[in-house]
Amino acid sequence: MPMKTIPSPLLLFAAAATLALGQMAHAQNKLLDVLQDENARDADFWIYNDLAAARAEAKRANKPLFVTFRCVPCADCKGFDAEVAKNNQRIKNFTQEKFVAVRQVEMKGVDLSQFQFDYDLNWAAMFINADGTVYARYGTQSAMGADAYNSVESLEKTMRRVLALHNGYPANQAALAGKLGKPKTYKSALQMPGMKHRSKLAGSTARNNCVHCHNIHDAEHEQLQDAGRLNHDALWRYPLPDNLGLQLDPSDGLVVTAVQADSPAYKAGLHPGDVLTRADGQVLTSIADLQWVLHNLPNTSANVTLKATRGDHAIEKKLAMNADWKKTDISWRGSIWSIKPVLATWCAPMKDKQIKPLRLAKGVKPLEVRWINTGRPEGRNAKRAGLRQGDIIIGMEGKPLRMNSQHFNMHVKLNYRVGDKLPLILLRKGKRIHFDWPLTDGD
Would you list the domain boundaries of the chain? Predict the structure, then answer.
C-alpha cells in the first residue's frame, strides 16, 4: 500500500495565503468593474480599497502610506485622478519606489477618526505612517473649480516633503501630533447617527449604492439638524488661504503669490515670495495642511501663527482674524444639498439664445424649473402650491434674479428655514406670476 504524503504546515499556510490573496484580488476586481473605475484599471501598483492590507504592507516595508480617496462617478477631478492613478510616469515611479499606495473608492469601512479631511472633495489624499501618525493632507477645492488648486507638480512636491518627514520619524513625532484629529464617537460611516439609508448602504457597493465622501458631511448635518444645533459656523469648513488674504501657488502649495491689501496676512507683514513652513506649529506640506489648521480654529476672533522663509532667513508672523472670518462661498459643496430646507427641484440656467426672447432686464439670470421631484414631500408640496415644470424664475425677494443655480440653492439654505415661504417672480407662458414657494419638511 503506497504511503500517503502529508502536506507540511508551511505548505498548507502558503496554499491558504495564496487562496486568500486570490479571493481578495477577485473581490477588488469585481468592485472595480461594478464602479466602472477605468482610471484604476491596469494600475497594479495601487492596493485597491483595502486600507488594512495597505497598512500591513507599509509596516513591513517601512514606507509611508499614500491614500487617495476618489468618488468614481463624479466628473470633477477625473482628469487629475487619471494622471495620478496611472498616466503620469514620474508620479507612478515615485509612488512605486517610495510609498505604499492605496486607492479608496468608498467610505463604508473607513476609520473616520484616523481619516479626517474635507469630505466634500471629489479627490483627496492623506499620507500616514503605518502606526497612524498623519504626515500630510492634499486636495483643495473651491467655487473656482475642482482642479483650481490641484496639480501634479504640487502633489509631487508634497510627496517629497512627506518623504522627508517619514525619514525624520519618529524623532519628529511630537511635532506631527496635531495633524491627527480628535477621535469620533463612532468608528465608521454606517455607525454615524445621522447616516440615512444605512441598511441599504450596508449591502453590496454599486455606483448607486455607495457611501460617498460627501455623505459623511451629510450625516453630520442630519445629526445637528435633528438636535437643533446646525448653524452657519458649522458650514464654513476648511477655509482657504484666501480667507487670510493669501494666495498660494497651486503648482507648489506653499509659495505666496499675492497678499490682499488690508487682510490679516497683509497686516501681519507677509509678502509675495514668502514660503510657508508651519501653521500654529504644524509642519505644512500643502494648501490642505494649512486648511486643516484653519478648520480647527473658531469662527470668532482668532489668531494663527505662520512660519515662513523669506530668502535665506526664517520669519514668524501672527495673523489676527475678526469674527466670521471663515465665511466663504460654499455653493460648490455637494453636502450643502442635504441642508434643510430642501427644494427637491432641478432649477437649471438658461442659454443666451433662450433668454433673449424673454426681454428681461440686463444682468438677470433666469432659472428654468426643469424637474420637480414629486417622490419627496418637499417637491409634492411645491407642486400643490402651484409650481410647474417649465416655470422660469426671474426674481426673488422683490429683486431680479442675478445668481446661478448653485448660488440660488446656497442663498435659500443660508437665509430660510423650514416653514418659511420663498417669494419668487415666475414667467409662465410669457406671463409674470408672484409665487410663494412653501419650504417644507414633510407632507
Answer: 9-198, 241-321, 340-438
* Contact indicator for 305, 335 with CB cutoff of 8 Å: no
Q: Are strands 392-396 and 421-428 parallel, antiparallel or unpaired?
A: antiparallel
Q: φ and ψ at 211, to 5 degrees?
A: -80, 100
Helix-helix angle 89-98:152-167, to 10 degrees = 10
State whether residue 218 is helix, strand or coil: helix
C-alpha count within 13 angstroms, C-beta hemisphere, residue 41: 9
Lowest mean pLDDT among 29-38, 311-320, 330-339: 29-38
pLDDT tens digits for range 37-63: 888 898 888 999 999 999 999 999 999
User: In the 8-state DSSP scheme, what is residue 57?
Assistant: H
Q: Name the CATH architecture for the domain at 340-438.
A: Roll (2.30)
pLDDT tier, 18 (very low <50, low <70, confident <90, very high otherwise): very low
CATH number of this structure's domain 241-321, picked from the four choices 2.40.240.50, 3.30.230.10, 3.40.1010.20, 2.30.42.10: 2.30.42.10
258: which 3 cell numbers? 499675492
- Secondary structure class of 314 (helix, strand, coil): strand
